[in-house]
Please model this.
Amino acid sequence: MTDFTMQKDADGVALITWDLPGKSMNVLTMEGAAELNALIDDALADEAVKGVVITSGKKDFAGGMDLNVIAGMKQGGAQGVFDGVMGLHHLLRKIELAGMDFKTKKGGKPIATALPGTALGIGLELPLATHRIFAADNPKAKIGLPEIMVGIFPGGGGTTRLSRKLGAMAAAPFLLEGKLSDPAKAKAAGLIDEVATDPVAAAREWVLRATDVDLVKPWDAKGYKMPGGEPYHPAGFMTFVGASAMIHGKTMGVYPAAKALLSAVYEGALVPFDTALKIEARWFTNLLMNPSSSAMIRSLFINKEALEKGANRPEAPDQTVKKVGIIGAGMMGAGIAYVSAMAGIEVVLIDNAQEAADRGKSYSTGLLDKAISRKKASEEKKAEVLARITATTDYAALQGCDLIVEAVFEDPTVKAEVTKRAEAVIPEDAIFATNTSTLPISGLAKASARPEQFIGIHFFSPVDKMLLVEIIKGKETGPRAVAKALDFVRQIKKTPIVVNDARFFYANRCIIPYINEGIRMVAEGVSPTLIENAAKMMGMPLGPLQLVDETSIDLGVKIAKATRAAMGDAYPDGAVDDVIFKLADAGRLGRKSKAGFYDYDEAGKRQGLWSGIALAWPEADTQPELTEIQHRLMYIQSLEAVRALEEGVLEDIREGDVGAILGWGFAPWSGGPFSWLDIMGAARSAEITDGLAAKFGPRFATPKLLSDMAAKGESFYGKFGAGKVAA
Ligand code: NAD
Model:
């Protein structure tokens, strides 16, 4: 296999083309790096070569590092990672110095990169090591260093080069937030040097004109000073102190990547460039040896992508949706209509009254107007998307729909009637999906004449923002319905998980106990501030009390009443109800009523925790240990995930982990509940949950699966990581 090839022309320009065989996007492999190294050696040694242009044979430049490279390096332990990274540094540094005499900075050969499109991760770190970067005038191209998003940082010199090129402050959004830019913005920010219609031609021209001084990077020139100041410069001092505080404030110290990145920049800024690269490699090694980074890469990159590509799709012919009927144009229906129309699917949006249907459609108008004002969409695009949505009250319009998504009131009688009315019109082979959040699918399927074509497609609110869709199989749901749901989710570019039918399915089953545990603690007299901070310090995006304010306290009351009615004496959450019923009675319904566990100002902006909590539920004199609160909040979710697996609701731990992060923000640094349990270890977890169960009750009882795994020294990914565990 040849990833890189070189052609030398009569003018003395060597064109190196990166074109990974059999892939639509270039990623850097071990073999590729070795090939590039050999070609650079050849070009530098060949007297006929005056300069080099590196480009891609594909429409994009590169998507980043092949993650197998990282996995391969890790097999050699910390030394393996460090040596692997240093190998890459040597190659890039060779490109940067390009054969020049380091003392006189003369005699090097100019090397430029020409980016036809997207350049991410190592796909930008390599260009940053060259002397000039040309990008095609391609507004669709994305340029940046997104590593931080999957729990690592740019470890191929990108951290050191970019912070020295732009200064720590200007580099921060690209390094710390993984900000991506189109070529024009990348040029304005100083990430790349030029935007050209034909970047290869422009790069070639530049290479032929370049002189010795053009090849010397600022950090290799005499008297280099870091833009914005080094750490001991008064301005730099402020930047680093501020950045350190900001990172801790934002991540609560749970994301090792942000800390390691900042350390690499700070320590690197104090020493010469080559030592800085070594420091960067050390921090990168430190990070890769931290289980959080492997877990994040596994869930947020590898497994998320596998699920999106249909890892659990049953064998069935292509089920691409052409025309979707959405019944109920309320909050959810309107959102589902928008994402469907955006994906190019024809939409029939039905409600009881024409006004309601129109209001549902106008939700799309609003979102498109907002996108236009942010220059993310055009008037033509808006017209095109809106033209796909037919808002009506007439069920006859559902003729020809190959998929129905029902999002009417959460009432089985209404849903049954809607199912019958729709099935009277739609084609025999159409699939009918319900967006119910609480009603069992198998029960709702009783209203259907074709229960094998009946399925749950559970969206999260707001539909246009939330990335997860939970697909629920009822008892009689057939494989084609699952394939249809998965193909639909793929069309609308979301991530699916497929689960079996049980109370609250998967996501709500785990998140409700989290909220309830926080509320229970309030009733016990635990300080609400302590509860909220304990959750955030574990990496939960919202504390349980803020979360229930967001989802609304009356919804909590509604769910509590329905659950109590269904469970009778076995209902375990009386202590929780005392608190939320009291808040609901006082009209404190959460953010929407501008009063809940928190106070809100007139504009609905959250202020502090409500002082009335302490009056109704006085804080105990002795507060529990932070760790105990964190264990309660994390295990209450994770044990529920294990039970869902044990009971066969969840069939694949990959779905359990990806679904938890995307569905309710389960501490992303951990890779999800199963990854977190693996990080903790089954034995240690069982010991902790046994203790919690003894102190707080059977909701913490160690599931048999976990205690068996503890006894055998097993891990979830060791045991179930390869995929499905149940059919
Ligand atoms: P909503 O009250 O905003 O909208 C329901 C809409 O259905 C209303 O516009 C109503 O007029 C319409 N409707 C009622 N009966 C109808 C009928 N017979 N024919 C046509 N239209 C009819 O409710 P929502 O929040 O959009 O929820 C809808 C469904 O989605 C519910 O099953 C709910 O449990 C589920 N769900 C809600 C959320 C959420 O966060 N709100 C999340 C996931 C799932």
